[in-house]
């Protein structure tokens, strides 16, 4: 059972929260991190749409009191794609991220991952970085 987990920042992506946890725990092996966080080494993690949220919360829910739906709404990029999806497809995507066995999120919303060249690092908005955090 996980005894420490970072408090997510407002609007912080789940992948960032998980990366902070891994860094703070000193975990160097990817498969070990998957085992600790999700209870299995057989997942393919995603920085864009991290699935298996129910499994994650079964390990950290006693520390991070949040619903799977809140994780998606507050800590994923689904909100960026939501205006371009119909309600049924968006709801199905949420369920896939929560309990799905395979994370096929990118192809489900119409992004063929093999056709995209992803940047090596995430980028940030310099204006947002200079703006002080204000409660919403």
Give an overview of the whole structure.
By secondary structure, the chain is mainly α. 46% of the residues lie in helices and 0% in strands. It is built from 8 helices and no strands. The chain has helices at 14-25, 30-38, 53-60, 68-75, 78-81, 87-99, 105-108, 126-130. The radius of gyration is 15 Å and the shape is globular. It starts with 13 loop residues before the first helix and ends in a 6-residue tail after the last helix. The mean pLDDT is 82.
What descriptors fit this protein?
0% strand; 136 residues; mainly alpha
Shape, per Cα inertia axes: globular
Largest sheet: none
Mean pLDDT: 82
> Assembly state here?
single chain
What's the structural blueprint in terms of helices and strands?
Elements: H1 14-25, H2 30-38, H3 53-60, H4 68-75, H5 78-81, H6 87-99, H7 105-108, H8 126-130
In brief:
Helices cover 46% and strands 0% of the residues.
